[in-house]
Design brief:
36% strand; 207 residues; 15% helix; alpha+beta; globular
Length: 207
């Protein structure tokens, strides 16, 4: 499955990069459509194992996506723009995240981690989820990792296998190169609740 991003300009929180704020816009709910066609001028959508690679509609970059056979139909998407910035989303139909919710999530890869990292709630394709921006090293760490664990404090959010991510990220970079020529240098069950974002009783909250 492949995502495409609208050019909607939003009033999303200013603490995230401009393109990531655009992902968090209310209008993205209708714009993040999962479909087969690619929109890049010089790159055709292709499948590598469980991963789909496609160019963005506006030619600003490319995306890899993968669907997981898990409760709620978890979908993962990693976008890489030609300026070296990235945006990462996970969606699930069971989650109760609301658009514009500000979240602090911990992301643990086999190679590196991002504790208490900011994410913004989005709704897309009938699912709720979040979008986050990472440092330029994230795609490399993602490619070299066997799994991604995401937690909300002590609550597990997702446990996602990343087999094949190395080849998918290599192809992702090729797709980005095809959009603009040589790539620019970077700027610098399992215990998981059905809905890890549900409101918790006040008496049970840990500080």
């Amino acid at each position: 499955m492949v995502s495409r991003v609208s050019n909607t300009v939003s009033h999303a929180p200013r603490s995230l990069p401009a393109r990531t704020r655009r992902w968090a816009a209310p209008g993205v709910a209708a714009a993040l459509v999962f479909a087969a066609p690619a929109f890049g001028q010089a790159y055709a959508t292709r499948q590598l194992g469980d991963w789909t690679i496609a160019a963005s509609k506006d030619g600003s970059g490319c995306f890899i996506s993968r669907a997981f056979d898990q409760p709620g139909g978890t979908t993962l998407l990693l976008g890489l723009d030609r300026d070296g910035s990235n945006h990462f989303s996970v969606l699930n139909e069971n989650w109760s995240i609301r658009p514009q919710d500000r979240l602090k999530l911990t992301f643990r890869l086999s190679q590196g981690g991002y504790p208490n990292h900011q994410a913004i709630g989005i709704v897309a394709d009938g699912k709720q989820g979040f979008v986050a921006a990472f440092d330029p090293k994230f795609p490399t760490s993602f490619a070299g990792s066997k799994a991604l664990h995401i937690d909300r404090g002590t609550t597990p959010v997702a446990r996602l296998p990343l087999d094949g991510s190395g080849a998918a990220v290599v192809e992702l970079r090729r797709c980005v190169d095809a959009q603009h020529g040589p790539a620019k240098a970077a700027a610098g069950d399992d215990g998981i609740p059905r809905d890890p974002f549900a409101e918790r009783p006040k008496g049970r909250q840990k500080r």
